[in-house]
Design goal:
Blueprint: H1 2-27, E1 41-45, E2 48-52, E3 58-67, E4 78-83, E5 94-97, E6 110-111, E7 115-118, E8 124-131, E9 138-146, E10 149-158
Parallel strand pairs: 2-10
Antiparallel strand pairs: 1-3, 3-8, 4-7, 4-9, 5-6, 5-8, 9-10
Length: about 160
């Protein structure tokens, strides 16, 4: 009889762990650490940046703000950032950096288009785009999204 009791205890323990795992996975996406909930908004500053006659690498800093529907900030929200002309895409006109300052910030990290940043405790995430010195211009939208919320910033390099 002892082996049957031991097996039942093990099965009961496994069922308990399975239930805890299911509950944990159901609540893992809740709270403030993840995508923003429906009805939330994202804003970006600046909305548009135009660089004129720039032939040297130049960093452009951006600030994203995530807010609940009531206007209060969303701390630790994940935001996806992508640009059609950003590395490693074919045009490769600029490179995203995880922090402000572009390549001139010695602690910065170059990231590919489509990377995910995270807002701070005030609902703000700051990043940069390092525009490569070029002889040709471009006009690209930087798309920022989280859940159903999205916004965009326009980045233009022109020559006159």
């Amino acid at each position: 009889m002892k082996p049957a009791i031991t097996i039942r205890k093990k099965v009961a323990g496994l069922i308990f762990l399975l239930i805890l795992g299911v509950i944990g996975s159901m609540t893992g996406g809740c709270g403030t650490e993840g995508i923003v909930p429906d009805g939330s908004t994202l804003s970006v500053d600046p909305v548009s940046t135009t660089l004129t006659n720039v032939t040297v690498d130049t960093a452009v800093d951006f600030k994203v703000i995530a807010r609940y529907a009531d206007g209060s900030p969303i701390p630790y929200a994940k935001v996806k950032i992508e640009g059609s002309f950003a590395a490693p895409n074919a045009v490769n006109a600029y490179q995203f950096y995880y922090y402000p300052g572009g390549a001139k910030n010695p602690n910065n990290v170059a990231v590919d288009s489509g990377f995910t940043g995270q807002t701070d405790e005030f609902g703000i995430y700051r990043f940069s785009a390092n525009v490569f010195g070029s002889a040709t211009g471009f006009n690209d939208d930087i798309n920022i999204s989280s859940g159903t919320a999205s916004t965009k910033a326009t980045l233009i390099l022109e020559f006159k």
